[in-house]
Write a structure and sequence with these properties.
The strands form 2 sheets. The protein has a 7-stranded mixed sheet. The two termini are about 40 Å apart. The protein is an alpha+beta fold and about 325 residues long. It has helices spanning about 10-15, 65-80, 100-120, 170-175, 185-195, 205-210, 225-235, 250-255, 260-265, 285-290; strands at about 45-55, 85-95, 120-130, 135-145, 160-165, 215-220, 235-240, 275-280, 295-305, 310, 320. Bound molecules: adenosine-5'-diphosphate and magnesium ion. Adenosine-5'-diphosphate binds near residues 13, 91 and 122. Adenosine-5'-diphosphate binds near residues 13, 33 and 127.
Length: about 325
């Protein structure tokens, strides 16, 4: 491992960042003051920004490549929730004094891999030193046909509520990293930690929801909290049958060992799945879209008159959870 301290800002940009911008001419090789982005006719630009702080969102000894990927993927998940196709991103690196060149090399190698996976290119950014913890911020731009971006506010009353993938793995993965779920088999623990470290944004599927979904949101704060945001913006109530919420085998095993983990699963964060509503008559189209993307999509409930989120047990009785999702303050 190269223990050398950082080279100059300009060397860092030339060595590790300029190669990531090669696919986009408007980035001008990161040699200009700003990027130039030609408008795409017939499309709206969708922009989103996320930040990760060392000690809050990642730990100093987490693998840097997966930190880079997570930083990019959380923004890609927002684009997916808007129905947008990834296009470009901007990156702010505020690097702590103890950052080594090897960290930057590994961090940017993670970004390089994900640029290929998700077809997105670096277009610019800023690089600074900080006396505080390393702080990373990424702005992602996507494209969606004009006027067609999905919204949290579009759910009707009587729509079906769906979720992609499985819920709870991210929050359980974090619990494992913090010493929880001790009785769980090693493979299950590894699965959960992997899901926490490397979310899989539902990029292509989100694009496909344009014209199908009435409202959408990505699950970052927790299923209950995020469904609450969607319900509030849409002016409706959402009812979820807790037993229908799709769980991975690892999450099932964790829950089997400790029923109290249901709150972590339903209210914990970091799933980065898509939660959306649609007219129930579109079920076949939604399932065939899911099939094309190799994705599981589960109907977990319905919307109706009223406000808030109601969780029901298999007998139809309301369940209350201790907490409603992760909040920073
Ligand atoms: P200025 O001082 O005018 O802001 P900089 O020296 O900060 O210019 O940046 C020079 C070029 O390098 C710009 O094109 C900028 O977008 C790019 N750049 C700097 N840091 C990063 C980064 N972390 N990621 C991507 N591009 C970067
Ligand atoms: Mg600068």
């Amino acid at each position: 491992m190269n223990r050398r301290r950082l080279p100059s800002e300009f060397e860092l940009i030339a060595r590790y960042l300029a190669p990531l911008a090669e696919g986009f001419e408007g980035a001008r090789g990161l040699g200009d003051d700003a990027a130039v982005i030609p408008p795409a006719s017939g499309f709206d630009s969708v922009a989103t920004v996320d930040a990760l702080v060392e000690g809050v969102h990642f730990l100093g000894d987490d693998p840097p490549a997966s930190i880079g990927k997570k930083l990019l993927r959380v923004s890609l998940s927002d684009l997916a929730a808007m129905g947008a196709r990834p296009h470009l991103y901007f990156l702010t690196l505020a690097l702590s004094e103890k950052t080594e060149e090897a960290w930057v090399a590994d961090f940017t190698s993670g970004l390089a891999e994900d640029q290929k996976t998700y077809d997105i290119t670096l277009a610019g950014g800023d690089t600074v030193a900080t006396s505080g913890p390393t702080t990373l911020s990424l702005t992602a731009l996507g494209q969606v046909p004009s006027g067609k971006a999905l919204a949290r506010s579009g759910a009707g009353k009587g729509d079906a509520v769906y979720v992609t993938g499985t819920i709870g793995d991210g929050a359980l993965g974090l619990a494992v990293l913090n010493g929880g779920c001790a009785g769980l088999a090693e493979a299950a623990r590894a699965h959960l930690v992997g899901r926490y470290r490397l979310p899989e944004p539902r990029t292509g599927f989100g694009e496909g929801l344009v014209g199908l979904a009435s409202a959408a949101i990505d699950v970052s704060d927790g299923l209950v909290a995020d469904l609450g945001h969607l319900a509030e913006q849409s002016g409706c109530r959402a009812t979820v049958e807790a037993a229908r919420v799709p769980l991975s085998e690892a999450a099932e095993a964790a829950l089997g060992g400790d029923r109290d983990l249901l709150a972590t699963i339903l209210a914990g964060g970091d799933d980065y799945e898509l939660l959306f509503t649609a007219d129930a008559a579109k079920e076949t189209q939604i399932q065939s879209l899911a099939g094309r993307h190799g994705l599981r999509v589960t109907r977990i409930g319905d919307t109706g008159k009223g406000a808030g989120v109601q969780l029901l047990d298999p007998q139809g009785a309301p369940i209350s959870l201790g907490r409603q999702g992760y909040r920073h303050f």
